[in-house]
Amino acid sequence: MTLYDALMAFDRDTQALAQVAGRLGWDQETMMPRGAADQRGEEMAAMEAVLHARRTAPQMGEWLAGIDDSALDAVGQAQMRHIRRSHARATKVPAALATKLARLTSVAQGKWAEARAENDFAAFAPVLEEVVALKREEGAALAAGGDLYDAMLQDYEPGTTGAEIEAIFSAMRPALTDLRAAVLDAEKPVALSGTYDEGAQMKLSRHLARTFGYDMQRGRVDKAVHPFSSGSGNDVRITTRTTPTDPFNCFYSTIHEVGHAAYEQNIDQAYLLTPLGSGASMGVHESQSRIYENQIGRSRAFTGWLFGQMKDAFGDFGIADEDAFYGCVNSVNNGYIRTEADEVQYNLHVMLRFDLERALMSGNLAVADLEAAWNDRFKADFGYAVDKASNGVLQDVHWSVGLFGYFPTYSLGNVYAGCLNQALRTAVPDLDDHLAQGNTVPATDWLRDNVQVNGGLYEPRVTITMASGMEPTEAPLLDYLTAKFKGIYKL
């Protein structure tokens, strides 16, 4: 056995254990009894201790020192790139800190859920202060004198800096703000009304998951407070949520998470339980979920088909025809919730979070002032006040579990999706004819072959550039949004 073979065998077990840890997280969100929260925190801490020990094991350093990457093929070199990056990160973070963070964030997630239910940020603030303090300690260790937030971004979007994201957001904000103002001043499409059986929502939700290529033999659909996708390879699970008055929340949460899950399921099986066996980055991951959800799932062609599915499931639900339904699905309205936001306003929600979490990590914003800062920024950006904490600072789970640096990848995903959609439409010029029949295969096959099958083989921007034929830029996304919503709102 060569040094490379020994390293990959060792890393395979580490990858498998990480999947087990991920399954604990899935269970915590879906089925775990509430009284198990503290015990689960101990379990997660124990798993993190094992994983950290493996990632920093002495033999890892010996293998990495002894392997000549240039003697490997392209796949081997990519595997080494990921393993070296992971090892460098793990050796910078003390084991005690990694374990403490795993324990704390597991408990903090439960406290966040309780505070959210009670609309009580003050009840959550103390544990969030602990999380922020530990994450800043971790960031300092990773940054080694550099920018803390940039160091954190590498966990989600390798090669990207806060300054680069800020530049993209600065280019997007004026166009989005102007489009939002014009749309909100125009006549609104007809709105959905009435109530929709939640069991019927879940039935149609699962049908939509299969329509977008989700393999139910290697996955499952459950319900959670905050929809998410979990796992990779041959065990990829998703969650959605139901609200009696808003079936779109269920349907498009499902389609969004299927975008993530299909990416993981479609990665080359040769990469299973290796560093290449997951997506290239969270931004690339979001490009898949957002293009499934928006450019495909909210298109005029696909919503025409979905209109028929809604009538079959719920009977006459008050929308006259396919055109009215298309406008209804894509209606732009005032709202507080990021995950429920329309395409015009979604990125404005992300920009708010990016600026606030960056300030938290730099020490320019204290947790005690976070709710007020959120409310002030929201009022300035959207023109109306936050009514309760669950519609404001407590709406997202991310900060409770320490995911600082994650939020901007949502908008990077939208930018990437804009580039991919432009290339997809060129490659499959009759795509709308297929989508009108509920056939997503030409789109999902193109995404599988050009993005998903590669897993982590390439760096994030290289992945998008190779697939779309262009360096990632916000221009295609802004062009798409402008044309779509000017058309819907007759601007």
From TrEMBL:
Binds 1 zinc ion per subunit. One of its GO terms (biological process) is proteolysis. PROSITE patterns: PEPTIDASE_M32. It catalyses: Release of a C-terminal amino acid with broad specificity, except for -Pro. The keyword ATP-binding does not apply. Keywords: Carboxypeptidase, Hydrolase, Metal-binding, Metalloprotease, Protease, Zinc. InterPro entries: Peptidase_M32_Taq. The keyword Hydrolase applies. This is Metal-dependent carboxypeptidase. It comes from the Bacteria. Zn(2+) binds at residues 256, 260, 286. Broad specificity carboxypetidase that releases amino acids sequentially from the C-terminus, including neutral, aromatic, polar and basic residues. GO terms for molecular function: metal ion binding; metallocarboxypeptidase activity. Its cofactor is Zn(2+). Its EC number is 3.4.17.19. It is an enzyme of class 3 (hydrolase). Gene3D superfamilies: 1.10.1370.30.
